[in-house]
Design brief:
Length: about 150
């Protein structure tokens, strides 16, 4: 696995936030959230300007509960509607790696990234992103690509 240091640029996105989500509920919450966001973008006649993401923050001590922001990058701001708002991704120094395979196996990418941060004395901001580069509806699970980004202090 290749881990790179990058300077992540900010993106604007239509977004929705969920707080204190249990890992066991991620799939259902994400399905609901992305469905709302895609429907709203289509209603506004906007195509996504980048890969959908999940921003994780406020992790519990055992990493089993998180606050999450689901977002779909757009090229210009859209009006807020109900729980949908305009979000901005973090910008700045980060490390990134590509995960190939099932979402449930993503720990195989997270663990080496955490080890890399420790070995290189890098400190996380506590915010990280998963960018979903292809669609699980038409991509075999073994071929799913997720770009993982850990923001650094």
């Amino acid at each position: 696995m290749s881990i790179e240091t990058i300077n992540k640029e900010v993106e604007i996105a239509v977004a929705v936030k969920y707080t204190d989500i249990d890992c066991a509920d991620f799939e259902a919450v994400m399905g609901e959230g992305y469905q709302k966001l895609l429907a709203y973008a289509a209603q506004c006649c906007k195509q996504p300007a980048g890969a959908p993401y999940c921003k994780y923050s406020n992790a519990s001590a055992d990493y089993m509960r998180f606050d999450i922001e689901l977002g779909i990058p757009v090229d210009e701001p859209l009006p807020e509607k109900d729980e949908i708002y305009m979000g901005k991704t973090c910008e700045g120094k980060a490390i990134t790696a590509m995960h190939k395979g099932a979402y449930k196996d993503i720990e195989q990418t997270y663990a080496p990234m955490m080890k890399y941060m420790e070995e290189n004395k890098l400190e996380s901001t506590g915010v990280y992103y998963d960018y979903y580069l292809n669609n699980p509806a038409d991509t075999p699970e073994s071929e799913l690509l997720t770009k993982v980004v850990f923001m650094l202090k």
